[in-house]
Specification:
alpha/beta, FAD/NAD(P)-binding domain, 5-stranded parallel β-sheet, binds flavin-adenine dinucleotide
């Protein structure tokens, strides 16, 4: 049993997984979440084997399976004809789990957060606590909240997402990088999509300057989509702005009817400017450390932001497990950063590159691109086969 006291700022996927991992190690913790209830902007999230392996280890296997849908396959289609460029089985014949050692799931974000907090039994989760600052001293950290409360801990973990208030304490002010793409997200009942050739795979439609990704959730009754459009610039200081559904439909004019039908079937209401972070110079101070989007926000085109966040949370809990409160915490935090940094930097880069490949104009480069899509499982094995407990930096790049 450790004598360490950890304050986790942020009760999203990263903060809640971290809480469960700390509990496994017998480390005392408190999670502080700004919202009054657990909810998430956005609809669903795709969890790959590198994430679900850890959620299973934390005892969430059955619950997660009950609320998730396993896509039949990962399919990539051409934007206009719908011709299949690549088809990699996921649920079909149990192929994905047999290859990567854990399942692939599509799940509603709220259902996932609720499952995590139920597993935690609501224990040590303080809602309505928006962190507004902290003071780090040689013997501990004082954390301050907008409601006037404060708390003392040996270590503070910033799991507070892309607009982290903890990050400036570690690295100063950092601005997000606009990726040159905007995203439209929506949920559509499957019965409203008569042109969709098959609603069961996780499916990309790739074409010049755009792509559409969708997969089923809610027992297969609903399709979650993210439609991505390349734009020359983003001038709004906010990362989200109101839009009309016709903006998305117009952006996909001339695409396969399944695509235009999907983006036109729901009242989208807003578009998101997709940003990431340039790799940070460091992830921690003596007693304050970052996980998840606070450390390495990435664009969503590899479906890895949440999965990398889960890996981070497991890794930081492992590294803190043998660190006594009065001992050398900085070394434990450095071990964590060393274990995680290189891997997440490459996944950030790969996430951007995926959109570049998806968005190639028709022409001579397409044949080479399509052969890369056909070899996707071998190319991505180092991400999906990864075991965050056993992981060493050397695992990177090993297919
Ligand atoms: C369009 C889109 C689609 C995506 N799809 C996928 C996908 O399919 N698969 C995947 O792996 N990833 C996906 N991602 C990425 C994924 O959503 C994030 O990487 C993941 O949510 C990061 O988790 P987090 O816990 O670090 O941050 P968050 O999920 O942002 O959670 C941060 C939490 O901290 C709280 N908080 C913030 N500030 C404070 C404060 N001051 N005090 C207290 N609490 C605070 C917030 O309320 C929130 O609950 C997608 C992202 C986008 C934008």
């Amino acid at each position: 049993m450790s004598d360490l006291r950890v304050a986790v700022v942020g009760g999203g996927i990263g903060g809640l997984v971290l809480a469960l991992a700390l509990r496994e190690h017998g480390i005392s913790f408190q999670v502080y979440e700004q919202a009054d209830e657990l909810r998430e902007i956005g609809a669903a999230v795709a969890l790959s084997a590198n994430g679900t392996r850890e959620l299973r280890r934390l005892g969430l296997g059955d619950q997660l399976e009950a609320i998730s849908v396993v896509p039949s396959a990962l399919v990539i289609r051409r934007w206009d004809t719908g011709e299949i460029i690549a088809d990699h089985p996921i649920g079909r014949d149990g192929a994905y789990e047999a290859r990567f050692g854990a399942p692939y799931f599509g799940v509603h974000r709220v259902a996932l957060l609720q499952a995590l907090s139920q597993r935690l039994s609501g224990e040590r989760l303080r809602l309505g606590h928006r962190c507004v600052g902290l003071e780090e001293g040689s013997s501990g950290v004082e954390v301050y909240f907008a409601n006037g409360a404060s708390s003392t801990a040996d270590v503070v973990v910033g799991a507070d997402g892309v607009h982290s208030v903890i990050r400036p304490h570690v690295v100063g002010e950092v601005r997000g990088r606009f990726s040159g793409t905007v995203g439209y997200r929506g949920l559509v009942p499957v019965e409203d999509l008569p042109s969709l050739p098959d609603p069961t795979p996780l499916q990309f439609w790739a074409g010049p300057g755009r792509h559409l990704l969708h997969y089923a959730i809610d027992g297969g009754r609903t399709v979650n989509f993210l439609a991505v459009v390349r734009v020359p610039e983003w001038t709004n200081s906010a990362w989200m702005e109101a839009c009309a559904v016709s903006d998305a439909v117009d952006a996909f004019a001339g695409w396969h009817p399944a695509v235009t039908e999907m983006v036109g079937a729901t009242d989208i209401g807003s578009r998101w400017a997709l940003h990431d972070l340039a790799p940070l110079p460091r992830w921690h101070s003596d007693r304050v450390v970052l996980v998840g989007d606070a450390a390495h926000t990435m664009v969503p085109h590899q479906g890895q932001g949440a999965n990398q966040t889960i890996e981070d949370s497991v890794a930081v809990a492992d590294c803190l497990a043998d660190a006594p409160a009065s001992g050398d915490l900085r070394s434990a935090l450095s071990r964590y950063e060393k274990r995680r940094r290189k891997r997440t930097v490459v996944v950030q880069w790969l996430s951007r590159r995926t959109a570049d490949l998806m968005h190639l104009p028709d022409g001579p480069q397409i044949a080479h691109r399509d052969s890369q899509f056909a070899a996707l499982y071998s190319e991505l094995a180092w991400i999906h086969s990864y075991d965050a407990h056993a992981a060493q930096p050397a695992a990177l790049g090993a297919a």
